[in-house]
Design a protein that fits this description.
140 residues; alpha+beta; 6-stranded mixed β-sheet; 1 helix
Length: 140
């Protein structure tokens, strides 16, 4: 009978420790601010030939409330600054963009997709939500 009491006491102690750890985890998770989740993906061919057309596709989505979303494709050649090539219209859900490009010279072209949040269709101050990784097209 003495053994039962010791194991019962130990079980109650373990149970109390587990309940305390779960309570602490719940309080910690409740204190952490919620962040909007989103993602932007872009695909382009690795190589292209001078003068030939190639296709770039991008998809962007974000669950931030209160924003319309606009996806823009940006390009740069060499060390030049980024410039916008094409943008979608403002939409409530995810945005998808397909663009066709070509190069007149050999070298590397870099592309990225950027997802913006807008408060209205004619918002002049969009908020940059996410950007994709940079993809490089080697033009031969």
């Amino acid at each position: 009978m003495i053994r039962t009491e010791k194991s019962g006491t130990r079980a109650r102690g373990v149970r109390a420790a587990v309940i305390g750890a779960l309570g602490l985890a719940a309080v910690t998770l409740a204190a952490v601010p919620a962040f909007a989740k989103g993602d932007v993906d872009i695909t382009a061919p690795r190589t292209a030939h001078v003068g030939k057309t190639f296709t770039i596709t991008a998809h962007g989505d974000d669950d931030s409330a209160g924003y319309l979303h606009q996806l823009c494709l940006e390009e740069r050649a060499g060390k030049q600054p980024w410039h916008q090539e094409n943008c979608t219209t403002a939409a409530k859900a995810g945005a998808r963009l397909t663009s066709h490009g070509s190069a007149a010279h050999r070298g590397d072209l870099q592309f990225r997709a950027v997802l913006y949040g807008l408060k209205g269709k004619h918002d002049r101050h969009p908020v940059r939500l996410h950007a994709s990784d940079v993809v490089t097209v080697h033009v031969r």
